[in-house]
Amino acid sequence: MKLPAGRYTLRVFVGDCSGGLIAALIALPYGLAMATLMGLPPVLGIFTSILTAPITALLGRNPVLIGGTASATVPFIALAVKQQGLGGAAKVSLVASIFMLVFCVLRLGRFIQKVPQAVVSGFSCGIGAMMLISQIDTILGLASPLTRSAGSTLAQLLIVLQHLPQAKIAPLILGLIVIISASFAAHISPKVPAPLIGVAIAIAASSFLEMHESVVGALPLSMPPFVGFSWTPADVYTVLPSGFALAFVTGVNLLITSRVVEHFRGRHKHTQKTDADTELGAYGIANVCAGMFGAPMSVGIPARSLANVRCGATTRVSNILHAVFLVALLALGGGFVARIPIPALAGVTAWMGICLLDWSTWRRLPKMRRVDALAFLATAISVLMVNAVAAVAIGSSIYGLRYAYLRLTSSPSLGPLASIHARES
């Protein structure tokens, strides 16, 4: 949201600082992990946020949307790295970024505005559950390649449940401290940086109880070089299709996440049609810049964006500060930041997931129209069983089927069916 001149007060700045800081803390381990899964140098997962945040903050429409390396892009970039190394990652990211700019020019982003609110709410709940489940193994001290390689979120949950006897008490305590402390702080005041308070209490508890858990560790601070690569005729059949698919997945995730963030900001009115197209263009330009260094694509991240909002951020300054804090955290990686327990950060992500579950929608579920309730549940479950993009398609298809059914039953030759539908309506 843009504030009028002279209205950027100290209180607004503190909120932006708190939101940017906690978003940066969440970005550290997550960005490193995602880049590692892609086969890239880990620091590139952080560099994506540092480079793209100022661009998306200045050019994007949603002022509190925080972008970064996302799991949805892992399969595409990992395949490119496996086939052509770092140059392959740069090529597929650049191609995908150009496709995003094409989507913007063709004004395709505005069609996301037509996604029904029930599907958006289901997407939010599904992402929240996915965030919570994805951190359970770390909070229980069970994190391993076995759980992270699971085909779906539900499969990962089943693997974690099978290994429950191996759970450790220390990381569980730290994770619960963050969740409980953040919940209590948010209950007292929604403007306080609840996750940051939870992390601070967890650090104090870890030191007092002498818990020796995995920590963030020292992180390098250096500018990565430009990536050199060459194009071949075979790229038409390999890089272009993969880049188009990556652009589509990135665009859908970005715009749906933006709508979810707006919903949790309390803005339930539809944004202008041009906003979605502008958002695609902003991230397309930002990702072109990141791709030149071989860094992963930047996508809207629900956990960081919601943390930003929950900590009181209201302007695009929070996005820029998020990048500034990441640079500072890398510079201070050998000191205080390096000693932050990983289970504490997992607790932050888990708490964000709990917040995204949108409990008000679950309470209204019995009173909702059947088609809305079905679309909501189908979307939320599909996020866990398949993936986020397929979930949106499945949820939206329910409305398509309903439309086809209404057209069919409205035919004069189907009088009995039409009368049945009239009674149901």
Question: What would you note in describing this structure?
Answer:
This protein has helices at residues 10-38, 43-59, 74-105, 117-139, 145-148, 153-162, 169-188, 194-208, 235-264, 273-291, 302-310, 317-331, 342-356, 359-364, 370-385, 388-409, 415-424; strands spanning 67-68, 299-300. The protein is mainly α and 425 residues long. It has 2 domains: 10-356, no CATH class; 367-424, no CATH class. Helix 1 packs antiparallel against helix 11 (302-310), helix 4 packs parallel to helix 15 (370-385) and helix 11 (302-310) crosses helix 13.
Main sheet: which strands, in order across? Answer: 1-2
Residue ranges: pLDDT <50 for 5 or more in a row?
none
What structural class do the secondary elements suggest?
Answer: mainly alpha
**Main beta sheet, described?**
2 strands, antiparallel
In short:
It is built from 17 helices and two strands. With 425 residues, the protein is an all-alpha fold.
What structural keywords apply?
two-stranded antiparallel sheet; single chain; 425 residues; mainly alpha
How are the SSEs ordered, and which strands pair?
Blueprint: H1 10-38, H2 43-59, E1 67-68, H3 74-105, H4 117-139, H5 145-148, H6 153-162, H7 169-188, H8 194-208, H9 235-264, H10 273-291, E2 299-300, H11 302-310, H12 317-331, H13 342-356, H14 359-364, H15 370-385, H16 388-409, H17 415-424
Antiparallel strand pairs: 1-2
Helix pairs in contact: 1-2, 1-3, 1-11, 1-12, 2-10, 2-12, 3-9, 3-10, 4-6, 4-9, 4-13, 4-15, 4-16, 7-8, 7-13, 8-13, 9-11, 11-13, 15-16
